[in-house]
Structures are given as structure tokens and as C-alpha cells.
Amino acid sequence: MSDTGLPARRAALTALTAVEEDGAWSNLAVPAAVGDLASDQDRSFASHLAYDTLRWEGMLDWALGEVLSRPLTDVEPSLRRVLRLGALQLLRTGVPPRAAVDTCVSLAREQVPAGRAKGAGGFVNGVLRALGRRVESLPWPDVEQDPVANLARTTGHPRWMVTDLHRRFGTDRARAILTADNEPPGLTLRATGDRDALIAELQDLDLAATPGASAVAVRARGGDPRRLDAVRDGRAVPQDEASMRVVEAAEVRPGARVLDLCAGPGGKATYLAALAGPTGTVVAVEQHPHRARLIEEAAARQGVDIEVRVGDATVPVDDPGGFDVVLLDAPCTGLGTGRRRPEVRWRRTPSDVNDLSVLQRRLLDAAVAAVRPGGRLVYAVCTWTVAETDDVARWCDDAHGGALTPVDRRQLWPDTDDTDGMYIAVWDRSDQDAGPAVTPGG
Ligand SMILES: C[S@@+](CC[C@H](N)C(=O)[O-])C[C@H]1O[C@@H](n2cnc3c(N)ncnc32)[C@H](O)[C@@H]1O
To answer: Which end of the chain is less packed: N or C, by CB atoms within 10 Å?
Structure first.
């Protein structure tokens, strides 16, 4: 590592700023911020600091609140981020306290105009030294008396998420899920060609590559996948195995006509296109033009054909024959992606769950209408709230019960499946049409 460790910490702070100020996702912001650091060791340390500061934000804020004389929300955001970075080092790393505090003082001085540098440095110094003295005597909530508060603090998750999991599964399983949600997932790739050759190539790079559970999956040690030639030239696609399972649940055959609703940036659309082959058709609908462009770029890189349409997927696709397979990978709270972008837990609120579950029903209505008699429908969301998963699937059963037969329904979990927390529901449409779909949103 560099002499003082300051460049690595500065890069971590840059990533935290991008996440908080620009709404960037950490799985993109962190690799971008650490990419220019001098050594692997610096990059790895900076990534660890940035991701863990995001993971443990709630616990860090609580601990800082124990030593601050005013609410943390009153501290200006740039200094609040420095305090969190410092608190993380004091509470959850083996970094010597003096190094943690001194580097944070330097960073604090850089965050403000020169005339305020001394004051900002002194403030951060005082708060972090006070926290250093309290590390052993913080009032952690007792697990017996208040299991939800204990889980929230000790696993670093918001109370509403913990309450939901605790109510459904009890303390031990909730802790297992939340703990797994804090584990960096390593790198999972989908091989678009010869998987064995890809594994050998990654092993030559010392990335400890092994086959995953899916026939096209490769697991490897973490790192920035964009640095890999295989990813740059489309022989490998960074993709969680849960996403591969969504596509595999569709059972696409060569020559199939496939509709992918809500398709950007195209991770699943390109896999669908590979399975449908050159005689098949994949139509991908995406609302946001820049995300639609990402589908086109991914298809070009991987050498597959996709007809990309920019549009609103709640509007039924005009296609009289219907599609053999319709995938709806709906917008959702994304809580199941927490291993890769831990800030999702702080960005989402219970009201998002409600709003999204309404949109998911409207999208699903349009998806049902596009499946040909005898065809297959797959609904997926990368989350685990009941409102966005089983409730939506049950609503679909009720609304379209005459036309659809449930085939499969499962929730993948980071603790038991070692994947993103993805929900997958599959229906087959009966051969005879059972009449018009219900009104969207009904
Ligand atoms: C979960 S992501 C899809 C990920 C994608 N299937 C993949 O595997 O790469 C949901 C996508 O739906 C898009 N979206 C949201 N609302 C939409 C709508 N009403 N119509 C079409 N696309 C929509 C979002 O822009 C986002 O790209």
C-alpha cells in the first residue's frame, strides 16, 4: 500500500460521494474511483472501505450519534462521509486508530475551502477520537429484549427490512439472510462460448475460476470485470447466477419468438437471444433510451440479434400471434442485489415497495397479453418483499387464472442459494385463449 494509505482512502471517499451525491450505484462507482490507484493492494483496500462504509452506514451513524453533541444530519454531507469512513475503520477494521483518525483529518481538510480546513480537521479529529474511546462501551441492543434492533445494528440494515424478515423467518434465519447480504459475492460470469476455455483463461490470470451451478456459469475471485479481455470482447458477461436461472426458467428453444419486457441493460435479453439462436427472434422493450442502447451494444459484443424497442412495457405489444416466451424482469426495490450494491438498503423505503407493486401488476398484465396460447410467462424481480413477489404472483393467478397455469415459483436467497435474492414465477398459457386480460392496474 502507498506510504500513508491516503490515496486509497481518498478514492473510497470519491466513491462514497458519487453514490450519495450523484445517485451512482457502488458496483460502478467503486471500480471507477479505485481504478487509478497504484497497486492491487491499494485498490482492494479502497474498495473494501467504500463498500463496507455503505453496508454499515446505519450502524456507523448510530455509533457516531453516541459521541456527537448535535445530530449527524446537521453535519455537512462531505464531513459526514469522512466521519463514516473513519468510524468504519475504528469499528470494523484492524486499522490502527491513529492511522484511521489522522488520514480522516487530512481528508476532512480537503473537503472544505482553505479557510475552514483547520476547523473541519479539528472537528473530525475530536469526534473520531471520542468514538475511539467508546468502541468497547457502545450500548448494543440486547438480542433477547429487542431482536429487531439488535439485528439492525449488528448486521447494518434498516429497521423496516429487518422487521419484515424477522416477522417471516425469526431471529436466526433473518440473521443468516442479512449476514449473507453483507458478503461480497465474488465474480460470476456467464460464458457465451466455450466455458472450459474461459475457466482456463481466468485461472491463468490467477482468478481461481471454477464452474458455477448453471451450465454456462463461472465463479471467480472478485475484482473489476471490465478489466478482463473476455468481458471486453463478449466471451463472458458479468451476471449473477440468479439472473441465469431466470432465463433458464423460460426454457427457450432454438427458433423461439421471445419478448423481453423491461430489458435494459440486456443481461437476460442476450442470454435469451443466445438460446433462441439465429432462427429465433428476441424483441426487447426498454423505456429508457440509454439503457436500450446498452442492450444493442451488449448484443453486438456477444454476436446475437435482438430487436430493441424503446417504449413503455405497460402498453401491450402489438403482435397478433403472440410470443412463445415472455419474460418480465420488472423494476423492483432491488433488495436482493445488496451484496453488490449495499446502498440499495438505504435508498429504498416501504412506500417504494407499494408503488412498485402497483407498477409490477400493470406490467404483468401487458406481459400476459403478449403470450401466445401454449406459451410461457416468466415474472422476475430481484427482491424479496412479499408485496413484490408472492402477492403479485397470486394477484396474477386470480386475474388470469383461466388462461394461466402456475408452473414454478421460488425465491432465491443469498444465504441458501449463494445468489442474488431473486424471485421467479413461471406460468404456462393454456392452449385455448380464456378471453381478454383484466384492466391494467385492476
Ligand atoms: C430490473 S431492470 C431489467 C434488467 C434486465 N432484464 C437485465 O437482465 O439486464 C428493469 C428495467 O426496466 C426498465 N423499465 C422500468 N419501467 C419500465 C416500463 N414501464 N417500460 C419499459 N421498461 C421499463 C428500467 O429502465 C430497467 O432498465
So the answer is: C
pLDDT of residue 90: 98
Q: What long-range pairs does 158-161 form, CB within 8 A, spacing at least 24?
A: 158/58, 158/345, 158/346, 160/349, 160/350, 161/335, 161/345
Q: What is the pLDDT of residue 170?
A: 98
Continuous segment of H or E residues that includes residue 162: helix 159-180
Environment class of residue 158 by beta-carbon count within 10 Å: exposed (0-12), middle (13-18) or buried (19+)?
Answer: middle
CATH class given for the domain over 239-429: alpha beta
The answer, yes or no, to whether residue 334 has pLDDT greater than 80, is yes
C-alpha cell at 431: 392452449
Atom 1 of ligand 1, nearest CA residue? 331
| Mutation to probe ligand 1, out of 241, 243, 261, 287 (largest number of atoms < 8 A from CB) | 287
Report percent pLDDT > 90 for the chain: 93
CB 367 within 8 A of CB 298: no
What homologous superfamily does CATH list for 6-137? NusB-like (1.10.940.10)
Do residues 79 and 120 touch, judged by C-beta distance below 8 A?
Answer: yes
288-321 b/e with 16+ CB inside 10 Å = b?
eeebbbbbeebbebbebebebebeebbeebeeee
Domain ranges, ordered by start, for the chain:
6-137, 147-180, 239-429
- Cα 405 to averaged position of ligand 1 atoms, centre (Å): 25
How high does pLDDT run on average in the chain? Answer: 95
Report d(CA 178, CA 173) in Å as an integer.
9
> What is the tens place of the pLDDT at every residue in 251-272?
999 999 999 999 999 999 999 9
Tell me if the pTM is above 0.70: yes
CA-closest candidate to residue 386, choices 420, 347, 360: 360
How many residues belong to the chain?
442
Residue range 95-118, pLDDT digits in tens: 999 999 999 999 999 999 999 999
For 260, which DSSP code? Answer: E
Closest CA to 313 of 264, 366, 358, 353: 366
Residue 2: pLDDT above 80?
Answer: no
Residue 435 pLDDT > 80: no
Quote the ligand 1 centre to 107 CA distance (angstroms).
38
Catalytic residues: 382
Coil, strand, or helix at residue 36?
Answer: coil
With 90 as the cut, is the pLDDT of residue 50 above it? Answer: yes
